Amino acid sequence: xxxxxxxxxxxxxxxxxxxxxxxxxxxxxxxxxxxxxxxxxxxxxxxxxxxxxxxxxxxxxxxxxxxxxxxx
Length: 72
Prior knowledge:
Belongs to the eukaryotic ATPase epsilon family. By secondary structure, the protein is α+β, with helices and mostly antiparallel strands.
């Protein structure tokens, strides 16, 4: 039997991001704010096609866009 996150069509990284967000949102206000600051991502990535680099994107904004797209 596959893992629930895999059966739902999620990657493991996406599953971890969702779980971390759920935990951060369940904390008390003071702890939640500190945890949300630690959860900010400052990573950027670019897709390569045919040996050429595409647009460089911020991982946090790309992740947020993908989450809203999948929530619909």
